[in-house]
Description:
The chain is flat.
Amino acid sequence: FRMSRKDADFAFCGRRVQMLDGEIVVSRREASLALEPLDFAGRRQEPTTLLIRGEHAAYRSLLGQLRWLRIQTRPELSFDVDKATQRSAAPVLQDAQQISIVAKRARNSADSTLRFPRANITLSTCTLLSYSDAAFANMEGEKSQYGLVIFTTHKPHEFWKGSFDAGAILYWTNATVKRVFRSTLASEACAV
Length: 192
């Protein structure tokens, strides 16, 4: 396996990577701008009407684009995209409207990027920080959810005070809690 050194802008698996002096910037601007929100509103008024075959296919296609985008560079879309995924077996008009709102939000913020500091990270000086939040089935009709983000930093105290350039995001996820807990604290501890 050969590693190559890149000193300029380049594309990698559809991501645009910019190598700047102090940081590496990763974006998927083109993918965000290519999202086309669904428009079924003119056909029906009832929000609980199931989508018909062609509409269901369009829903799943847009959902797939959003899932790929959130995995690559857009962690802020995780909750809404995963919520839509849970409904993808039998989506209704209201679900299509919600996913269209997410697609519009992703298009409007197409210039969002992930930034990684260009510094040597050594295990002896690095600190891993984990942030999670879990919902104890607090949304009507929804299961318990959790979100998890893992950061690395050399300056944890500065990072938590708001100096987010003192660290870098390594991993993010949002998922359904697969266990039953007696409290929110227990579900949050399990998420971490």
